[in-house]
Each structure stands twice: as structure tokens, then as C-alpha cells.
Amino acid sequence: MAAQHLTAALLLCEVVMEILSWVPAKPVTRLKLVCKSWNSIISHPHFVKHHLHRSPKNAILLFTRTPPFPRDEEKKWGLVLSSVESFIQNPSSTLDAQENRRSLHVEEDWVVGSCNGLVCVAILGHPINDIIDIWFHLLNPLTGFISENSPCLRVNVHTAFGFGYDESSDSYKVVSTTTRGSSGTVTTQVYSFGGSSWKRANSFPAFPFSFEDNGHFIGGTLNWLGLRNPHGDDYDWAAVTLDMLMLVSFDLKSDTNKQILLPKGIDEIPAQEPILGVWGNRLYLLHDYKNTHFIAWQMKEFGDENSWTQLLKISFHHLGVERLFLPVFIFENGNIFMLRGRHRFEEDFYDRRDNSVKRVNINNLDFDAFDYVESLGVGPAKFRSL
């Protein structure tokens, strides 16, 4: 009889867990207050991962008002969460709306990336002779938990970063790539949150175009567009040749890197520096063609270089611009491209389904956007409540 009661209790627990796993993240956090057993279920790491797996992907955007690097002490910024639909319909109102803001406000730092509902934030010291101290922590905007700071990383200001998740070790990692002046050497260091130190990894064969270009996370890897043997970070794009351009992919499991071939259809160097991005769990490469057209490539199967597909080619004339302002975000499975407009605080939305262009004023708002999914996770690092 006791065994039957135990079996029934376990079955009831499994049923409750199954039902709760379909409830959106925000309301499920309130359900912790129903009873101790529900609190135990919702707080369990297995449930957190199960719930994240069932959460809708790429339905939410996280916006930050990010000061330039080195930071501008005059600027303050916070985190704004929005549905894709709301932002497309009215970007300015969405970013200004108080109901979209979390009580968590981050000042003077900047967001490196977002993964599984956790946001990686860098805390910047003051640069001295181009050397800067940086600390990193994770935060969950939904639950209000924040991790302890990472050990200090001392690098020069010509450093790019990336943030992602290593499923094999259940760890979140931040990666730094630092150029070494005229030698062109790129030093790579990795920190696993919850650890006590940074560790060196194999040097990159190329360095990212810009230290403001965060690594793009997909398939357990961080990816950058870079230049091979540019003789330092002070390069002239007009002197760059096609064989110098490469895509470097860093594997977070093995802490090693490899090259991914560019689309075979690229037969000449673009007039402007191209852009790499990950949207909707697809890798994109975006560039101009002869300063007259905008081209977007999509890698349909990550890691398969033969799956590069030219998604669109559109003239600047049709977009109503004289020069290309590459996309800052892509929506609706690669159908809608948000382009920086002719003016700093203007956005153009190009919809390739009907070949239309919509121009929107964003009222002097300067921001960065990230894919974001609400989750209950706190990660393996030690967290505290704000």
C-alpha cells in the first residue's frame, strides 16, 4: 500500500511538472508561492532546463542603451524587453514604454551577449595607456538574480568578447580576443563562470574587425569575422584582399578554433566591412556589392559550408539610400531586415516578402539589440538577489 501511495505521488509530481513546463516563465515564477512542493519543482535544475527547452525562441528582444567604448560617463542605460511584433510596429514607443523596463538597471557597464535567459555584462575600469581592467557577471532580468564578478581581466582596449553556453560542461563562458599591436598576434582567454581564473586558449589566426563586435553564439560556438595577417589592428580596409577575410569559429567545448569558409559566391572584397550575425538560430553574412547593392547570405545548416544561400540582393536605390547602413537586426526568419537609416536615429525596415521599405524615426534613441528568451535559470555560478 505504501508503495502504491509513493507511486501515485511520483506520478502526480510528474504531471504537475509537465503542466508547469508549458507555463510562460514570468507567471511560473509566481506559482512558486502556491505551495512548497511547487516551489521545489520549479526551482529544480531539471525543471529549469525542461522549461527553457519549451520556451518560445526568438520572440523577445533585449535592448540596451550602450555607451561607446571607452564608455561615455554622461550616458546611463538600462534593459528593455519587448516582443518582436511590438518593436516592428513602433520602435520608439516600445523603447520608451515604462512597462517594458525591468526594475533592474545597469549603469556604466555594457552587455556582451544573451544566452538561455542569462545576460553577460562587462564592468569597465578606466583605461590607462590603452590598458583596461574588466570584470564580468551574469544576470537574469526576469528573476533579478546576479552572479558574483569574474576575476579581473587586464587587456588593451583593442579587445573583442563573446558569450555563450557549453552544454557538455553545463557552463557559461566568456571569451576575449586581444590584438598585440603591430605583431598582429591575437591572444585568446576564456573564463567559465563559477571558476576562479581565466585560462589561455590557442591564438586566433585572425582578429575581429572591431572590438565592439561581440562573438556570435550558435551551435556551441562563438563566431567572428576577421582579417588574416593584417599587421596589427590599425589597418586600411582599402588595402584588404579577399584572401585576408575569414570567419573564425571558437568551440566552447574544446576551447579551440577553426575556419569556416565564406560563401562561394563572394568573388571580390566588399567596399565596406561586412557584418556577421546570428538571428533565429541561423548564421548570416551581410555585405555590400560594388557600393550599389546589399547582399545577405544565410547558412541554413550551421557548420555546413555548402549550405550558404544568398537570401537577397537589393539595390541601394530601392532602399532609398546612397550608401549602405548594414542591418542591426533580422526578424521573421530572415524576412525582415532592420537597417540603420540615413540619419543616426532613423531605422529602415525592409520586408523581402513584398519588397517594401518602411522608414521609422526612433527619437534620438541609441541602442543595441539581442535575441532573448525569458528563463528561470541562474547558471552554475554563484548568484545573489538584487
Low-confidence stretches: 2-6, 66-75
The global form is: globular
Strand content: 35-45%
Mean pLDDT: 79
Q: Count of helices?
A: 7
CATH topology heading of the largest domain: Neuraminidase
CATH C-level category of the largest domain: Mainly Beta
As a percent range, the share of helical residues equals 10-25%
Oligomer class:
single chain
How many strand elements? 26
What is the CATH architecture annotation of the largest domain? 6 Propeller
- Count of distinct structural domains: 2
Tell me the distance between the termini. 47 Å
Q: Work out the radius of gyration.
A: 22 Å
Largest sheet: 6 strands, antiparallel
CATH homologous superfamily label of the largest domain: Kelch-type beta propeller
Class per helix and strand makeup: alpha+beta
Would you mind describing this structure in some detail?
It is a single chain. The chain is globular. The protein has seven helices and 26 strands. The protein has two domains: 2-51, no CATH class; 56-385, 6 Propeller (Neuraminidase). Residues 2-6 and 66-75 have low confidence and may be disordered. It has 386 residues and is α+β, with helices and mostly antiparallel strands. The strands form six sheets. Strands 3, 4, 5, 6, 7 and 26 form a six-stranded antiparallel sheet that branches. The protein has helices at 2-20, 25-30, 36-43, 45-54, 84-89, 91-96, 316-319; strands at residues 60-64, 79-83, 110-115, 118-124, 131-140, 145-147, 153-156, 159-166, 171-179, 186-192, 199-204, 206-208, 216-218, 221-228, 245-251, 256-260, 275-279, 282-289, 293-299, 308-315, 327-331, 336-340, 346-351, 356-361, 368-372, 383-385.
